[in-house]
Design goal:
759 residues, alpha+beta, Alkaline Phosphatase, subunit A, Arylsulfatase, C-terminal domain, Jelly Rolls, 3 domains, 11-stranded mixed sheet, 6-stranded antiparallel sheet, globular
Length: 759
Amino acid sequence: MPTEQPYEGVIGRTLEESRPWWPPVPTAPEGSPNIVVVLLDDVGYAQFSCYGSDIATPTFDAVARRGLRFSNFHTTALCSPTRAALLTGRNHHTNGMGRIVEFNSGFPGYDAYVPKDSGFISEVLLANHYATMAVGKWHLAPPAEMTAGAPKDKWPLGRGFEHFYGFMGGETDQYHPDLVHDNHQIDPPRTPEEGYHLTEDLVDRAVSYITDLRAVSPSKPFFLWFAPGACHAPHQAPAEYIERYAGAFDQGWDRWREEVFARQVESGLLPPGTKLSERPHWVAAWDSLTPDEKRLYARMKEVYAGFLTHTDDQVGRLLSFIDSLGETDNTLVMIMSDNGASAEGGPRGSFNEMYFFNFEPESLEENLARIDLLGTPDAHNHYPWGWAWAGNTPLKRWKRETHEGGVCDPLILSWPARLGTAGETRHQYVHAIDVMPTILDLLGVEPPEVIKGVKQRPIEGVSFAHLLSDGQAPSRHITQYYEMLGSRALYHEGWKAVVFHAMAGLPYDGSDPRKPFEEDDWELYHVAQDFSETVDLAQAEPERLAAMIELWWSEAERYQVLPLTNQPIAGMDNRWRRERFEFRPGMASLPETLAPNLRNRSWRLLAELHVPESGTVEGVIATQGSNAGGWATWVKDGRLHYVYNFLGAALTTVSAEVPLPPGPVTARIEFTATGAFQGDVDLYYGDVPVGQGHIPRTHLITFGMHGFTVGYQRGPAVSPAYEGRFEITPGSLERVVIEAAGRPWRDPEREDRAAMSIQ
């Protein structure tokens, strides 16, 4: 039997002369705790109740009461970068995660290939005999490797997790998620009509993993990385949770923010002397809105609040299960968010966020008419950015930017067996890269020098384990750079230099994204005394500011931040783009980055079908998108059909005038661009024309989160003419060939903004 130890039994000529031996079962060090990391998405600094909100989060509040609340925890400002920092203890550019994976670029700090010399904490814990489980959002594989046919070494099971159940991309529909189980795509176990919601499913799966573990090992510790899609858009939650908040936000974001700030001060969350930062000019005063705008925007916030409370309840269900096992005392729980609240709903919010990302204005009247659908499977909604600004109270700005509203987030930690004091607040500076070394420090585990034969680079974070028992101890994290899409900052010994640089395609505050970086106006704050960045000392302390800017450049060189750019899609990986595609039915879905690019250009699709003499053929041939927008071609009632769904608002269907003939036949669809964002559709059986129509308006930039499939629909149907998967009749579809013609129309600046839809 192969073993690392020499055999210590006795082998004689007979069993009576022999003594069997088994190597000892490897175990984690005695007393090792379970570890549960709950990472929420787009939840701002002030959105937990225990951080000042009036949104009910009793589970998170209870964890804070029995543990510690951190008031000065920092992230990177975006999700993929923060996730990489948390799991490796290294800076996001060190990990090749200078931005989200969909924006990967051909430079070391931006390629989205987390190097093997940045070991994940899951790999370290697995080697120390932990069970490891990842549930929820991953978003740490480059787009070309998110598909079923791609290498899996950057998927969870390739980075130290034994189980994975969740989704690979940046966002997903809560009712129709793009689910992956371990290394393969699956469909949700239930439908929305049967009561399905993703967060509930994720908790069910986490509970089942722990149940399976305890069935064979009553004491083996586990590491659970639990990262729901909540509360990233689309904001979707069961109706009973949303209705709890009817009328709760009618006072608007200005007054709500003042009320939150008062509770933050009263609870001791904020350092003494913290001021409430002013409302920026690009956020409308609530009192300036019309009654209809107020009614719609308040409802959008109600939906978000219901989403967050529902998430809190589901995390509560998970923690209650651990408690039922009698393991709460020896379970280290950490609850946090990956970045500040999201402003991607724009100034007016959205019923269907694909409008915003395709530069199509939404109608207030239409959205009001659909107000009761917000939060349901029929909506893909996001609240206005006034609520994002308020959700980061008392801080400036929001997700994606390096002022505190983008990078300062809630963090709650509990471990009853080790924390002698409970319910306290820690004000010391800590950062996402400190989480991994802190966990290892608490376990008494030294970071390994080698993982799977690869020598490891030094961990760049520092442990804050000493703060758990000593609230007066100083932070050991002295210096930290920030950079995200051109905005930069440097924290150093209680001071912060910061500059906002508008992202290409999104100059919402009137600034010029083409402005040279060397002409940016840096701000300087003494954040040890001015937590919310209200007093700019750049003019009063020019020498200090100059030194900090110089230090930022030094850190940028050290951690692979360069070259500096504010263009999300500059240098992106186009190695996988092609103009001719051949697909077989039943293939796993492809994300938009790998799907045929048929937007704003001519193209043709050929489907090789076999129609039996007796019987029928029906089902989807190919489709991309969802009920929020996309296209599809299918066979039903013996005929070929094609639909273009423009943002869920206008459907143009072209159907064949005659049935498909029996036997082998090539069904052909040709789209001929006749102008900007419009074109003619012609249907053929072989060379025989059988139908034609005109598409008056096509998408400018994107079809959204739902991918491209052949032989079935994945997610909500593009057309109401069919339901569910509507899988093609087995054996009837041989292959699909798609050929694009001509250069696609491009608007790089608008593509930059649209790309933000998946962050």
